[in-house]
Write a structure and sequence with these properties.
It is built from 5 helices and 6 strands. By secondary structure, the chain is of the alpha+beta class. The protein has a single domain, classed as Hotdog Thioesterase (Thiol Ester Dehydrase, Chain A), CATH 3.10.129.10. Strands 1, 2, 3, 4, 5 and 6 form a 6-stranded antiparallel beta sheet that branches. The C terminus is likely disordered.
């Protein structure tokens, strides 16, 4: 496993504000989608959470905006886990504008595993902790399935130093 691509999409005109830039609410939404992809990748699927009466709560989120996005821009979000604790996952999403590779925004999130019936934090399942540690161990090796990723984006060829840029941008 390598650094994960957790979101790919396009900026639509209705996501832009009166100045022609993507409104901040849409950054949050796209980062939220990327979070659920990460959790599913680790094994915390919606069905597993529902059946076990478990959930994840974002208790802190900090966003840094670096490059404005406009309608028609293609974006990719890559995710890096930065901390694993008994009940907590902290991770960083980097939203990148394609094909330039410019960082549009970075968010750091803290998520807490919860018992949804008792509304209390609870330990993450051991297999999820193992999966998260495995991802964290190997995430600096590059972007997962980069070649296939580029094949899905016509006109965007593989750039030199792709992995270097991602590593430098995320940390």
């Amino acid at each position: 496993m390598k650094k994960l691509i957790t979101y790919r999409g396009i900026i639509y005109p209705w996501q832009c504000d009166h100045m022609g830039h993507m409104n901040v609410m849409w950054y949050t939404g796209k980062f939220d989608e990327a979070s659920w992809v990460l959790l599913a990748h680790l094994g915390l699927t919606p069905s597993r959470l529902k059946e076990a009466h478990r959930g994840m709560a974002a208790v802190q989120q900090n966003i840094t905006y670096q490059k404005e996005l406009r309608a028609g821009d293609v974006v990719t979000i890559r995710t890096k886990i930065i901390e694993i604790r008994e009940k907590v996952l902290r991770f960083v999403h980097e939203m990148v504008k394609e094909p330039t590779g410019e960082t549009a925004a970075i968010t750091e999130l803290t998520g807490v595993h919860m018992d949804t019936r008792r509304r209390k934090s609870i330990e993450l399942p051991s297999d999820i902790l193992t999966n998260a540690r495995e991802v964290m161990l190997h995430q600096n090796e590059g972007v997962e399935d980069e070649e296939a990723f580029h094949e899905t984006l016509p006109g965007i060829g593989t750039r030199d130093n792709w992995g270097t840029q991602v590593s430098a941008s995320i940390g």
